[in-house]
Design brief:
Helices cover 35% and strands 16% of the residues. The chain has 14 helices and 17 strands. The longest helix has 17 residues. It starts with a helix and ends with a strand.
């Protein structure tokens, strides 16, 4: 992640006329860690949710807990160890995280917790440059991150929806929900093939998308057999006055990452390795130097002239492609402005931490009639609260319409 920040900043300086310095950008992060910020209700929720186990996690008591109890909402959270890491990165540059004093502290701390890691592991960690995957959709070109992310899954969903004429289908109607849900199911059948180095070019081929669409019945739902994974992710998007656009996500994967604060650093270590498999022959079989499957898939939509029409993304792990399918359909099929598209009802398929049923969770403001019609189509529907955080927390930025954040 740190190397990615540096690569993005260097690219901005060389290609986009960027003038911000590494030191000035990290100074803001240093100040937040050193001076502190108020504990949010979200942080309080996730601390309480993990109450049975969090007290035993390395480095949490005395930082995110006080004598084993959650910090109260509004409490000033100061993180001096993390501030010291930022200070070293400000003074010594980004590679200090991988090769310098910060790296040595990380390695010693992780080894103290029992992790098997050495100097070469951090030294060899560098960002990758890769071409985005893309798909034409309703006069736009959608760009997403390539494998091993599920960006391909989001594009598959949209490619399946492109096979249907939605002109006579009302937005957020039961028929609209049904098509989006069924497109998600077909794309998720292919998701297990997405892996670092895997050959998956055929997943966006017109004949493959056409076959997936042809498998959809407009009158009957297909069963949903897939497990759900939760995560902790933030979407960041920006468009500047010159029309330059950036879309990115960062994630620790799970609400508190691996449940380890690296001793002496204040860093919550991420948990992306959980996506590896130890099943022989599995596309995501673990091996040295391989990246795990990633749920992150930020996007950019280009107009017919190749200029950024909007950037978009959401948190939500497995729910990301589901949230984006409804959002993009409302934006591109129906021309809704971003604020209305973001506020419209959405769905989440499968199990969650709060509901272990393999059901279709539909937000309550879809209305009783829509939920009833979905049930007649064979969906096992569970109503969830209107504007529920389970349905994703997305963002859309347009150079003409401005920035819009999810009301959830």
């Amino acid at each position: 992640m740190v190397d990615g920040w540096a690569e993005a900043l260097d690219y901005a300086h060389v290609h986009l006329g960027g003038r911000a310095s590494w030191q000035s950008l990290l100074a803001q992060a240093f100040a937040l860690a050193w001076d502190g910020f108020a504990v949010t209700s979200s942080q309080g929720y996730w601390t309480d949710f993990r109450a049975p186990e969090i007290a035993d996690w390395p480095g949490f008591d005395g930082l995110f807990l006080q004598n084993g109890a959650s910090l109260p909402v509004g409490h000033l959270l100061q993180q001096p160890d993390l501030a010291c890491v930022f200070a070293k990165l400000i003074d010594n540059g980004p590679r200090d995280f991988y090769e310098g004093a910060v790296a040595a502290r990380i390695i010693a701390g992780l080894q103290e917790t029992g992790a098997i890691i050495g100097a070469d592991d951090l030294r060899q960690t560098r960002s990758r440059w890769a071409a985005p995957v893309s798909l034409g959709y309703r006069g736009h070109r959608l760009l997403s991150s390539p494998p091993p992310t599920q960006g391909l899954t989001t594009l598959q969903i949209m490619g399946i929806l492109a096979q249907f004429d939605l002109a006579d289908i009302a937005p957020s109607s039961a028929a609209h929900f049904h098509l989006c849900v069924e497109a998600v199911k077909r794309a998720f059948e292919d998701r297990g093939r997405i892996a670092d180095g895997a050959a998956v070019d055929d997943l966006l081929a017109p004949d493959h998308l056409g076959a997936r669409a042809a498998d959809i019945s407009t009158q009957q739902a297909m069963a949903w057999p897939h497990p759900w994974q939760h995560g902790d992710t933030v979407f960041l998007g920006a468009i500047d006055a010159m029309g330059n656009a950036a879309s990115m996500l960062q994630s620790t994967f799970y609400d508190w990452g691996s449940g380890v604060v690296v001793p002496g650093t204040g860093i919550i270590w991420q948990n992306r390795g959980a996506a590896f498999s130890f099943q022989p022959g599995h596309p995501n079989m673990f091996r040295p130097g391989k990246l795990p499957f990633y749920t992150l898939n930020p996007g950019i939509a280009l107009d017919d002239a190749g200029r950024p029409a909007f950037v978009y993304g959401t948190q939500g792990a497995d729910g990301q492609p589901q949230t984006l399918a409804m959002l993009l359909s409302l934006l591109l099929d129906y021309g809704l402005p971003p604020d209305q598209a973001l506020a419209a009802p959405r769905f989440l398929l499968g199990r969650t931490f709060s509901d272990q049923r393999d059901s279709l969770k539909v937000e309550g403001h879809a209305g009783d009639a829509v939920i009833a019609q979905l049930k007649t189509l064979g969906h096992q529907v569970s109503a969830i609260a209107p504007l529920s955080p389970l349905a994703g927390q997305a963002g859309v930025i347009s150079p003409t319409l401005g920035g819009h954040h999810d009301p959830r």
